[in-house]
Design goal:
4 helices, Jelly Rolls, alpha+beta
Length: 251
């Protein structure tokens, strides 16, 4: 993803018992929007939690002894959510005192507006859909999962899209040294503190409606990954759909 450090999974209830951030609550977005859905999405896109307090919130959540989500896991978007998806725009979330933070918030709000769970017309299957934003090169969603160090995992997913020349999409992996109960995109400072590695994963160009897969091996200090659904490069108004996202420990 132009190294996934660049790359930038808002789906429902962050880990059943929820993340401690009160402002940014992910919700499932059905194909037919309603007033209630619109209000929930608006709440999700209001990114007001100070980035400097994110680790404090994560520490408080950890003290409640909540079990983080971990493989094996399969998200087919047919019933209750199995994973949580949170929006990314660009490389990092700007710091709280940055003049760029309001603009970043605008990108996040727009991304949420073009995102949802939708049904494919031909097959009837449901999947996670979103599209690019004209003025930013990289958008996507991340899903935090707990993993074991020095372990090999397999990722598979179905992607349906028609990408223009100069655009790409897919799934990649970021590694971190501890599980953080944080539902906002990381600032550069927070990222650099916990980042331990990146895996390109699978990048697709052109037209596809196929299942793709890849494997990766975690490093000796890795205890959490972000599974990154990304769309990068040349802009168009076509949506892409991710479905049947599965992460398992490789045998």
């Amino acid at each position: 993803m132009r190294t996934l450090i660049f790359a930038s999974l808002c789906l429902s209830l962050f880990f059943a018992s929820g993340c401690q951030e009160e402002v940014q609550q992910p919700v499932e977005i059905p194909p037919q929007s309603t007033q209630k859905d619109a209000e929930a999405v608006k709440e999700l896109t209001t990114v007001l939690e100070p980035a400097t307090s994110l680790e404090e919130e994560s520490s408080q959540a950890e003290q409640t002894k909540m079990e983080p989500p971990k493989p094996p896991i399969l998200e087919d978007f047919q019933g209750a959510p199995k994973i949580s998806l949170f929006p990314r725009a660009g490389d990092f979330r700007p710091a709280d005192d940055s003049d760029r933070l309001p603009y970043w918030n605008t990108f996040i709000e727009h991304l949420i507006k073009v995102t949802g769970v939708a049904e494919e017309q031909t097959s009837g299957s449901r999947g996670w859909t979103f599209r690019s934003i004209k003025t930013i090169d990289s958008v996507g969603f991340f899903s935090p999962l707990a993993v074991e160090p020095q372990s090999t995992y397999q990722v598979s997913f179905r992607l349906t899209t028609e990408l223009p020349e100069g655009a790409s999409a897919g799934i990649g992996i970021l590694e971190f040294n501890e599980f953080l109960w944080i539902s906002s995109q990381y600032t550069e400072e927070l990222h650099n503190k916990h980042y331990r590695g990146v895996h390109e994963g699978k990048r697709v160009t052109g037209t596809t409606s196929d299942t793709h897969s890849f494997t990766f091996t975690t490093g000796p200090e890795t205890h959490m990954i972000h599974v990154i659904l990304f769309r990068e490069g040349a802009h168009d108004r076509n949506s892409l759909m991710f479905d049947d996202i599965e992460i398992t420990l490789a045998k």
